[in-house]
Records
---
Amino acid sequence: MNDMRMVERQVGTKPIKISGRNVQVYYGDSHAIKDVNVDIEDNTVTAFIGPSGCGKSTFLRCLNRMNDTIDICRVEGTITLDGEDIYDKKVDPVQLRAKVGMVFQKPNPFPKSIYDNVAYGPRIHGLARSKAELDEIVERSLRRGAIWDEVKDRLNAPGTGLSGGQQQRLCIARAVATEPEVLLMDEPCSALDPIATAQVEELIDELRETYSVVIVTHSMQQAARVSQKTAFFHLGELVEFGETGDIFTNPKDSRTESYITGRIG
Amino acid sequence: MPGGVLFLILCTISAVGYVMGRRKAVSVSGGDSRVMHSLLPYHGWNVALAAFLVGLSVMVLWSLLRLLFGFTDPGNNIVSVLSLAAALLAGWTNYARIERNYRARNVVELMMKGILIFASSIAIFTTIAIVLSMLFETTHFFRDYSWTRFFFGLKWSPNFSGNSDLGMLPLLWGTLYVSFIALLVAVPIGLFAAIYLSEYAGPRLRAVAKPMLEILAGIPTIVYGLFALITVGPILRDYFAQPLGLADSGSSVMTAGIVMGVMLIPFVSSLSDDIINAVPQAMRDGSYGLGATPSETIKQVVIPAALPGIVGAILLAASRAIGETMIVVMGAGAAAKLSLNPFEAMTTVTVKIVSQLTGDTDFASPETLVAFALGITLFVLTLGLNVLALYIVRRYREQYE
Ligand SMILES: Nc1ncnc2c1ncn2[C@@H]1O[C@H](COP(=O)(O)OP(=O)(O)O)[C@@H](O)[C@H]1O
Ligand SMILES: [Mg+2]
């Protein structure tokens, strides 16, 4: 049984997209992420799980330098994307974020039309040369966001008028429209009802074909359903990282086991 | 006895009423306050408020009656007796009612609600009363002076011996011209300052700059007026108006407009700053997360989201500019003129209201009564502006929510 899994794992190994080495994050004096080492593969869904406040979001935000927007936040160590240090002085965080898209916990469509929401990124980055091309990008992104059929007749209606689940899929479509290589999702389903959650989860599984997806979730069932790799964080440390199946059925660390069986969290 | 003493006695009665009511409630409860419908303090308040409100109402009613019918009450004797007796009676009635099932809490809540309604209606009724009295005087004015000549007259030259030209248009023109220049100065600068403060400035700079702006907003306008008279006026005249051959007076629309704009900068920036800060951080994060720069985020997400509020702030600033008097007197002068040249002296509605009413005046000639007509016009103008502001704000809300 164990041997078989070993084989499976070697076959399933994909190229490494993002890797973090000795990553430390401080908010002022408080040490929020302690010495994290992690390799995130391409075309894989990686789940970050752990009790709330353990630093999942903080670490996720390191991966596209969203923490730069918080004054008191300081990041140490190295994080590379395709082998290049993203905290290097040469790297423009604005360009990085175009490559590493992000979907947030609460759906946050802009107070603009559905069309303009999706077209926002492509317009900023000049991805479309003509109106027709932009239309095409918008349609393609909305289809990838699995929301095209619901909104195709009202692209000019405000995005804020959609239901919560639709808004979140719109936000995913918006992130997809900039053609990122990595998609970061911070508890994308926590504000959604079960049906919308199922739709978004299905979508995540499809997105894996094109992107490397990193998803923070507080729901272990969700991590088990959508991810291939799971990282368990506890008090700012990365306690355990491996195949999702292993983490859930055969955790090596006692803290992981306690969390999974519901004793901490 | 004097009114103040009467009021103090009324307060004392209430205080005593509170203590007595509470004490009776304690004794009725027999030491276990849980058997009472209402908590003990409510029984005290019940007595105190009843005495106070009834006493006060009698006092107020009495003054109204005296105003209406014009009788006298030497030494306030009658009203003192009446109101104190009423207060005692009301207090006693509620005191007598105290028992276990008496719903003192509900009665107190009702009285509190009454007080609040009274307070709000005072504000509304005073406004209505002011408008009515202005309207009244205005109709007097239009009896002596044709309204077409007032609203459409192009000449303003009051003449206290009679035969004046009281055309409003030069004044309205001056008002709008000065306000326009003021907004031209205040809106861009104030808005940019607000954007800098809320989006770029660090917390330490913010902590210093924001209170400083607010202090600026508190400077009396007469000080700005001095600034216009002594500094800005001469500079504009010596370096712009005279070299360009446009005019040669220190007082000008430009002077007043610029200084008024400076006065409005903190007003606009402080309001806009609050509004921009109210845009949820999630909007900005969403934009940054898509690889937008700070300025793109501000231009395309933050400002559109804050726009209704900002428009409201601008219209409020416009109302203030239209109602401003002191800066105009000292900066733009007092000559009513219809001209496009911004370096010429002009004047505004508010300034003329003041100048028509100062000095020895009887409120009978059109020359003084015109002030009320001007006042009503100004009132309608600012009211319209505020209604427009509300309308715009609401339309944007509907669009975005
Ligand atoms: N903006 C911030 N400023 C200061 N401390 C923060 C900030 N964001 C998060 N933290 C702290 O960092 C730790 C990790 O938070 P977070 O990454 O949000 O946890 P999680 O997403 O796992 O619930 C917490 O202790 C939290 O209080
Ligand atoms: Mg979180």
Note: Residues A 56-57, 186 surround magnesium ion (ligand 2) (CB under 6 Å).
---
Amino acid sequence: MSTPLLELKNISKSYSSVRVLNNINFSVVPGEVRALVGENGAGKSTTVKIIAGVEQPDSGGEIYYNGELIHKMTVKHSLELGVSVIYQDLSLFPNLSVAENIVKGSEKKFFVGLNTYKKQASAVLESLGVDIDTSLLLSELSIGKQQLVAIARAMYSEAKLIIMDEPTSTLSSTEVELLFDVIARLKESGVCIIYISHKLDEIFTVADSITVLRDGEHIETGAIDTFDQEKLIKLMVGRELRFVPFHGTDIGGSGTTFSVNNFTLEPYFRNISFDVREREVFGITGLVGAGRSELAQSIFGIRKASSGEIFLGGEKISISHTNDAIQAGVCYLPEDRRTQGLLMGQTVTRNTTSANLRGVSNKASLISGQKEKKVVEEYIERLAIKLPSIESHIERLSGGNQQKVLISRWLNAGPRVLIVDEPTTGVDVGTKQEIHRLLRELANNGVFIVLISSDLLEVLAVSDRVLVMRNGNAADLVETKSASQESIMEKSLLG
Amino acid sequence: MTKLIKYKKREMILVLVLLLASFIIYSISPQFVSSVNIINVFNNNALLGIMSLGMMMVIVTGNIDVSVGASFAVCNMVVAAYANNTGGKNPFVAVLIGMLVGAALGAVNGIFVTLLRIPAIVVTLGTMNIFRGILYFITEGRWIEGLTGPFLGFANRRVLNIPFAVYMWIAVIVITYILLYRTRLGRNVLASGGNKEAARRAGIEPNASTLTAFIYLGILTGLAASLSASKLGIAQPSNGLGYEMTLIAAAVIGGTLFSGGTASIFGTFLGMLLLGIIDNGLVLARVPLYWQDLVTGLIIILAVASSAFQSFSKVRSRRKTIKIEGDPACQD
Ligand SMILES: Nc1ncnc2c1ncn2[C@@H]1O[C@H](COP(=O)(O)OP(=O)(O)OP(=O)(O)O)[C@@H](O)[C@H]1O
Ligand SMILES: [Mg+2]
């Protein structure tokens, strides 16, 4: 074994009195791909921030880089040492161009050569295999493309250690392939990569070794072949976790339905029709960009479809604004929690109850703190949300826990129809199952569930029927009982 | 060209509004379009124009400075006092002193905002009163008049019939452009204005950007105050009252967003010009003074409303781009 590129010794971190990391020890060597895994709130992102100098560890811990003790790791210092991070929340600049986002932080000269940067940025994107106009503003890109920009940025910096915190959470499967190619190339040139993900199949594809964290403790580090999925999950969760695949319930008497008829909004989607039957979870899948989210947003009234009708329980409902949708009991969990979901700077409680304030109000129509607390605590328990306190600001929570809070919000809204768009993004394996179970249970209790997901395993496990969308068209409708991942994949690509 | 329309939409609209306003004023009072009057409009607004670019810079960092008017008065008096004592022999040194004093006042604001983390509006409301108060205390409200020597009137000197102050305005526009868009310093200002935490994680010190912006506004205020003393040959401690509102208006009309990170130098220039033309037009049309304030107020509201509309349509255009993104042809 060569000398470690980075070594953490007894790293701890506390926020006020809460200890979120406790004596973390591990090291990585050049050319290694190390997976860092753990449940939501285990301390992965915090570890990353300490390595990057964004957060300072408690005293007593030591960071060695190339065998040298770093007394105080600052952001500047870590950048100089060649550490580059793709943050879970991306940390990009919405007001700057793609080119500038890619070079920001790595510029050497005082005077800025715009065209040089543009060229260099384009070159990086090209080597990544994606086509994005570098003069666009970042805010004009979809969240998936922004993720690619963040990856390009890390590559541009020519770092020796690249940390990727859930880099694939918003990528399509083709783009994930591209990323894996890049990782292989980087590895070959001796770059070390710390890779964080909740997708275990990704980890077994890409990693050489794994470090498991649980509740801020270092549990185990070892070569990839010393692990299998079952063992890994057990180490992360701390107990045996059995996967119970769900089956579609018997869809008996199809009395009331939620139907969408001939929905069209060019150029996103056209002539989309489907019925969600009683006690059914209805899946919608397809490649990223197939028009799924746009369809959901139209149903919810965020962007009005040019034609189409919605029937709920035989009655036609007209939705021209999100308020109409919520009034009618149609709720939507958006795809991008940061820009479309969370109320930043607000407490966890307010984030949870905001879609159903009536439910936490007293007789005088004033919001009751007690009722709020009860509701929030119930979901914290149910979804195993890990948080400093229910009064802490939402941005203090780890990414996956933020997602769970959003899910709670819509569950709590008491929907008649619940459309969830990539509901388990960034959620750990254990809770993922719990969310699946919840969706199933809601369906059984009479809520119409529409599950939009690119994760085929998820779609197959939870939904009864799946609509496959391709290029904005309904490509096929399949019964999940008789479908496989491959057959759906084929349909979403070729039809 | 399409890019120009897409990214410079606001500036294009402003140019149209300017032309429209000019046309209306012209049809009421034809002397509006004479070279004398046009040069006058530029000359009368050069000083505020210079300062507006500094204000823009401060707003880009997500801050605001309402103490500029008071800083202007302080610089104005200091420069005049120096010119008075030296017989106006050395205009260059006088301007330099003005800019240094301005920079120091800007730094005071910047330090309070960054180190003590007090919101800029609170800090500068405070310093506005402190600067002005100290000035009145020291000067006891007295004016400085009868400036002489080369200092007097150098700002009015004309080359090609255009006053020096107008050249300075143009120079400051160019310098601001280079600073903001062509140096790492300026780019860092933009970046911190756009996403503070991301800036921090990219090794940029957002506080440094904020401090830079306040000092830059201070320097430009000092410059404008020196030019003012030279132009008028007189300085008084009540100078610069209400400047902050005009400067903020110019920047906002030009498309600078209070949320930070978005600026337009050309837009700010046009915004200043629009305010200037309307002032001028109302005078030419002999509209009573209080009506002028009303009209200016309306324009500011319209501008802010339109900037809200602009960010709204930005969200829309983003959705449109997502559609292009969603094009399956881009997928593989
Ligand atoms: N500023 C803060 N104040 C208080 N607690 C914090 C703060 N930042 C993070 N935490 C807590 O630290 C713990 C670890 O968070 P971290 O973001 O490292 O988790 P993670 O392993 O990355 O989880 P995820 O998989 O959800 O991203 C969480 O319980 C979180 O609530
Ligand atoms: Mg995390």
Note: Chain B has one domain: 2-327.
---
Amino acid sequence: MQQRNLWTALSILALATTVACGGGGEGGGDAPAAAPAAPAFDPATAGNVSGMVMFDGELPAGEELMMNSDPVCAMSATNKTSDTFVGSDGHLGNVFVYVKEGLEGQRFPPASGNVELNQQGCRYTPHVMGIRVGQTLTITNSDPTLHNIHASPSANDEFNMGQPIQGMTFERTFDTAEVMVPFKCDVHGWMNAYIGVLDHPYFAITGTDGMFDLNALPPGDYVIEAWHESLGTQTQNVTVATGQTADVSFTFAQ
Amino acid sequence: MTWLHLYARFLCAATLLLIAAGGMVTSTGSGLSVPDWPNSYGYFMFSFPLSSMVGGIFYEHGHRLIASSVGVLTIGMTVWLWRVETRRWMRRLGVIALAAVILQGLLGGITVLYFLPTAVSVSHAGLAEIFFGLTVCLALFTSTGWRRSGAASTHDAVARDATDVTTAALATALPVVVYVQILVGATMRHTGAGLAIPDFPLVFGGIVPPAWTFPVTVHYLHRLGAGLTAMVVFTTAGRLAMRQRDRPDLLRPAVSLTLLVLIQIGLGGWTVLSGRAPVINTAHVATGALVLGTSLLLGLRVNRHRFPDARQADASPPHAAALTAKEVARGAAI
Ligand SMILES: [Cu+2]
């Protein structure tokens, strides 16, 4: 852990140096370094993006998860339906909506607190989530069985950790923005989750009502992307003006 | 049949079981269900609770347990050979087998710790087949049939029969062809290309794929390789059936091989059509190992006269007799 802190400190130092030298392209960290290219944005000028993600047609029925290979899961799990397609009345949940372009070069205060990923009832809660670069992800095994937590990012470091005992936790951070980082449990092949790693705080996950809000954005032009694990991604351009809420809606279909 | 030969056969069978168990790990996608190595979830391998062998762990940890057992069996084989075997090259073969199984264990560990890199996983699959081939060699070379045929060199005339060099060459090439085909299959498997061509026996409704991505190409090569392997097997078996009727030691593996190749092609097709059902897929892997083992057996028997323990027909009979007597004595001592 101490070593990780050292590395974080060194990375921040390296990043600060890069920025000072005029480098530092996109995808930088959340370093609170003095960045001359990023003037602090005045919250009083902020605007919002709000909208809904819809599904055209009848939402596919949630797949029944076969948990027989682990008796603990088979007996204790209360929910055995896949989280891939959730929603109601044409609204689509578990969609990750975020600002894809338009915030380059800007720095935002680091997020406070940890993000939690829980393994309970042999599934991940939440199934789709977002986290900031450098923010701590706490992973907990709440089940009386074993899980392995295997993340297979492409831009960040892959890891695979075992949690054989109920109540075990460990923490991880991500160094680079990446949408999305897939998580899976190789013990229970049906367990998967997705985490979007961003270097800014403008992301949301739709609930079963399909609603999302990206609040307190600096005024400007943005590309908003909606990501679904099986339906892919969609993008839309939007202009945010001070004190206004821009409406953006997405419609997915199979 | 000596106890040593029986033991070698057992090692060979255990290795086939190990390959099937390893096949189940990949077929069920359980390779990373135990994140650490050589420990399992922090437990020493043999103290990991059996009740925790749930889900993917059943396959991965089970594979590790069987692998360790085969490792121990191989140590036994190597020591046994070292102590009683009179043929020096055989003692060395025992050491080579031991080195192979140790390296194989390390490759298995490395592939887990580095999240199944394709090159390491394919090497692990490739070395598994080489080790299996070594156990086939050990079983064959310790058999009385092999040792007897070394003396009766008038019988192993195939390769020296000028009219049948082709058969001998085909039988010699066969294990190599099968091995290359297995490597292509392993590459396909560990790059997740097993369903890159979704139909069978046709290829996207035709004979040639419309596009050549890596998965499609490696999958198509495996199908072409199957055709080539089948041709070599059928030709070799056909020639043996016509020209070597007095050689049941060659005819039997040739017939087995013909049947195995037909079964294997069927299993390959079934794997695709079943959407890679783990049991079918694994049966395809295990049968592949059997095809390799049988073709190796055939290739070795055809080349019997080339081995150091073969006595040429024109060699001085007293010398041969003396050696045989010594071997009989040695056999009695065992
Ligand atoms: Cu699990």
Note: The two ends of chain B are 11 Å apart (CA to CA).
---
Amino acid sequence: MDDELSTELREMDDELDEMLEGEDLAPPQGDDWNPVEKVILERRSVRKYKDKQVPESVVRRILEAGRFAPSAGNCQPWKFIVVRDPELIDEMERDARRMCRLFRFFMDWRTSPLGYWIPWLLAQTYIRLLHHELHPIPMGAVFAISEGNLSLFHGAPTVVFILEDFRGVSKPKVDIGCCGQNMVLAAHSMGLGTCWVGTIKLLTFTPKWRRRLGVKFPYKFCEAVTIGYPVGHPDGMIPRETVETDWYEDGRKRTTF
Amino acid sequence: MGEFTLFEMLRIPTYDNEDYATTGRVTIDLEKCNGCGLCAKVCPGKALYVAGEGKDRKAHMHADFPQCMSCNDCAAICERDAIFVSVPYFFPFFFKTQGKGEFSPPRKF
Ligand code: SF4
Ligand code: SF4
């Protein structure tokens, strides 16, 4: 009897859930954001920087935030390279642009001088091997860089390369993510703008920058973060897609957004 | 949303095929926009441009396959609340969006 009642109640509950789903409910009004939440929610990637250099002490503090990130087995699989020489940054930009042109030569079947079919086949082959790199969105970036519409480091005065120690415990790339996120949030809390630059991958297809920056075993390039003072006020809370979340509680499953 | 079929899992679409992929779209309130151009400067996809003279100087989105990734960076930097994403980007097959709901600002639960 009790069981029946509870199943019935559960069904009613489910029905109610279904009825409410998709309806425009007033947004929940909990407590105000605390300062940490504010920093997290307001941080946006910054792609336009002022020329003013960031003081060294500030960059050092940002690196400290990275140093104290969690990592699997406390293996700390990272090393930093800070580049603040405009000539060096420019040279990297030029090389990245050259690499993008090369990519387009071989894989952009609409503009390649190789004609239609060879680049088309190459693109179809490589996208199966490198579907992260050749996802349509980074591919758009590659086109924009090759045309000179987009720059690798967005004119930032300071670039921090995070190298990955590939002997790290478990998943070193996840640890690099934690480390970098600590740094960008710390930077944002100091009024700086940051942007993750995964496109530094373009510099790793030839040994040139590995040699120039002395990246040797066991390290390899993983990510870069640009740091500088943003133009305008790019930070703010914006709408973004909610994400489907399965929720197991009280012996049943709900899906929330 | 829904599940992936085997065909979808195997079919990897390549970059910007206008025939089926849709990029993000923004709505620009031309009344509010003053053509300051900040949005066009920060847009990672270079999907925006400013055109026009004097009072008619306004931001626009490229009509021909703008590489908009619906990041809302333009909305964040616009000081006049004139621009926001109205359509999220969508690629079919292997890159199909899954498990995402409506756009919503951060919610205070
Ligand atoms: S930032 Fe806003 S006001 Fe300025 S051009 Fe863009 S939409 Fe117009
Ligand atoms: S949403 Fe992002 S990619 Fe799209 S137009 Fe705005 S800034 Fe550009």
Note: Residues 86-107 of chain A form the longest helix (22 residues).
